[in-house]
Amino acid sequence: MVNQNLFNGTVVPIMVKSLRPGVLLSCFAAQVEVDNGTWYQVNPLDQALPIFIVQLILITTVSKLAIVVNKYFKSVRQPLIVAEILAGVALGNSGLGMWKTKNSYVGALFNIDRVLLLETFGNLGLIYYWFLLGLEMDVTTHTLHRIGKKAYAIALSGAVISFVTGLGLYRFCLPYSQSFSKGFLFWGVALSVTGLPALTEVLASLKLLHSDVGRTAMSVALVNGIFSWVSLTVVIVVSTHSILIALCRLAAMTIFILFCVFAIRPAIIWVLQRTDGDEYSEGAICIILAGVLACGLATDLIGVTSLVGAFVFGLIIPHDVLGNRFVVAVQGFVADFLMPVWFTLCGFRTHAMSLKVLSWWKVCTTVTVACIIKPATTLVVSYFCDLPLHEGISLALMLNTKGLTALVALTAGDQEMVLSVSVFLCLSLCVSVRVCE
Q1: Cation/H+ exchanger transmembrane domain spans which residues (predicted)?
Q2: What are the backbone angles phi and psi of residue 150, rounded to the nearest 5°?
C-alpha cells in the first residue's frame, strides 16, 4: 500500500495572533537567518547559513591541499579519489571530529545538527556525479557487441566470485547481530566492483589507455560496472524485511526503467537535436539538470536510492548527443566543489575507536582476502582465456582498482541500517586499501 502520509505536512505551525487586528501568524520551530553581523551580542555562526559557508570553505581548502600533495608525489601514482578520501577522513570523526568534545570551536563546526544541511548538499553532488558517470558509459548494442567473450568471462567471473567471497567474509570473519544480517549483501557488491573512473585515470597516467591491455581492461570494467549497478539496485530492493514490499519495489523499478527508455529518452533527444552544436539554450540545460533530480526523486519514492535514478537518466542519453562543453562544465563544478562534501560525510560515518570491538586477526584476514580474491580470479580466468601471462598479471592488478561505487554501496548499507559502525569502518578500510593499490 502506498504511504498515505506522503504528501501530508510534517511540521505543524503554531498559530498566534498578530499585533494587526484579524491577522494570524504561523510560527515554526526553526532557526531564522539574521544579518546583524558581529555588532550585536548574537554569534552569527550560530545560524545555519554562516556555519554552512565556513564548513564549505574548510572542506574545499583541505580537499584541494590533499589533491595538491597527491600531485606532487607523482611516483606514488594514486588516483585523485585517494586524496579526497584522506581529506574526508581527516575532517571526519576519525580526524578533526575527535576533538568535538574537547574544543568548543570544533564542536560548534561539526556538531550533528550542523551537518544536516551539509549532508543534503553532499548527496546532491553525488546525484549529479552518477548522472555524469552514466552519461560517459556507452552501453549501446553496438558497443556491447564489440566487447569480446574474453572480457565478458573475466568481468563476470571476477564479479561473481568476489561477491560470493564477500558474503563469506562478512558471515565468518565479522561480528553481526540479527538486525545487521543483510549487511553482507552490500559488502558483496562493494567487493565485486571495479572503479571505472579510477581505472581510466590510472591507465591515462601510465599511457596505457589505448594499448591492447588498456582496451581489454576498460571493456572488462564496463561490464563489471553494469553488473555492479544492477546488483546494487537489486540488493537495495530486497533489503526490506517484507517480501511484498520488495516485489512492489522491483515492479516499480522495472516500470521506471521502461518509461525512461521509451518516453524520456526520445523527448531528450528531440530537445537536444534542436540546438546548434554545443550552444544549448537555457531551457535545454534546465531540462537536463531538472531531469536528473526528477529521476532521482522517482527512484527515491520507489524505495531505491536516488543515485540509481540519476545514473539511469545519464545512461539513456546517447553518448554523442550531449556536447562535451556541457559535460566539462558540469563535471568541473561537481567534482571540484560538491564531491569533497560527500567524502567528508563519509569521514563522519567512520569511528576509529569502533575497531576495538573487532579482533585484529579477523580485520587483517578480511583486508587480505579482499585484496587478493579478485586479482587471483582474474589471473586464473585470463590463463584459461589464452591471454599471455604478463597481460593476465596486468589485468589482475588494474581490475582490483576500487572507486566511488564501492563506497556508495557501503554508504547505502549504512543508510539502510544493515551495517554496524565497526563493520562499516572495517569494510571501508578494505575499500580504501584497494583504491590505493
Answers
A1: 68-424
A2: -65, -40
Quote the cell numbers at residue 260: 525512461
The DSSP-derived string for 148-167 is -HHHHHHHHHHHHHHHHHHH
> And the C-alpha cell for 166?
564477500
Which residues on adjacent β-strands are paired with residue 269?
Answer: none
* DSSP assigned state of 321: T
Average pLDDT over residues 223-251: 83
- Which residues, including other chains, have CB under 8 Å from residue 55's CB and lie 6 or more apart? 109, 110, 114, 118
pLDDT at 18 over 50: no
The pTM assigned to this predicted structure is 0.81
What cell was used for 384?
584459461
Q: How many CB atoms lie within 10 A of CB 281?
A: 12
The DSSP code for 94 is T
* Domains of the chain, each with CATH number or no CATH: 53-113 (no CATH), 117-435 (1.20.1530.20)
Q: What ranges in 206-281 are assigned the alpha helix state H?
A: 212-238, 243-259, 265-272
Q: Which three cell numbers stand for residue 100?
A: 568535538
How many Å is the Cα radius of gyration of the chain? 23
Between CA 322 and CA 311 the distance in angstroms is: 15
Could you tell me if 87 and 62 are in contact, meaning their C-beta atoms sit under 8 angstroms apart? yes
